[in-house]
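Page 47, continued from p. 46.
Same chain as before, 244 aa.
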Amino acid sequence: MKTCLYVSGKLMQVVFGHWDVVTCLGRSESYIGGNCYILSGSRDATLLLWYWNGKTNSIGDNTNGERAAPRAILTGHDYEITCAAICAELGIVISGSKEGSCLIHSMNGDLLRTLEAPENCVKAKLIQASREGHCVIYYDNGHFCVFSVNGELHSTMETDDNIRAIQLSRDGQYLLTGGDNGVVMVWQVYDLKQLFAYPGCDAGIRSMTLSYDQRCIMTGMASGSIVVFYNDFNRWHHEYQTRY
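Result:
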């Protein structure tokens, strides 16, 4: 893996650990000082958990020039990793592979449980995890599944869009999705009920993120442009609807 300055693109650090191509990356929520955990998945069927030092803006907490080493090595998959997510607040890592079930590990590397999806859900493409204990997984057949961290399947839903990006709200109650149709949609997580659809764009959505205050949805488009949507999750909150 490489770390670069986003302003100039200058290469700052290179770390080694996997035996094959890195196929996905994940990042935990940040602590005070900008420290967080970085998760990397690879074609070698393993995941490595790294520590990001906000003070030195580098991977690892060694200040004497020693080579950075992963905090944990997560095993259990038989095929290349396709997606992964980390929730440091709950101390868990959720990952999916090209074939086989999704797995939940502790951040120490212990395999905790397997998430048993419906029979037609084989290859996980996208994963998000919330601090409320929800694991949202999108499979290549167009199905969404919501699991608890205990492995219980809460709900499923099928979509006709080829989803390319998903994002959970900070409180874990709402799910944003975007795909080739160019439409950002808002869903209620626990039952996958559709709440809202933003006006469609003229290109497919390839990536998505929320601003720190959760007020803006920023999407990267297939055309190379960036589209920003105003957002207010409060409009779907039951207390807000009752009061106003």
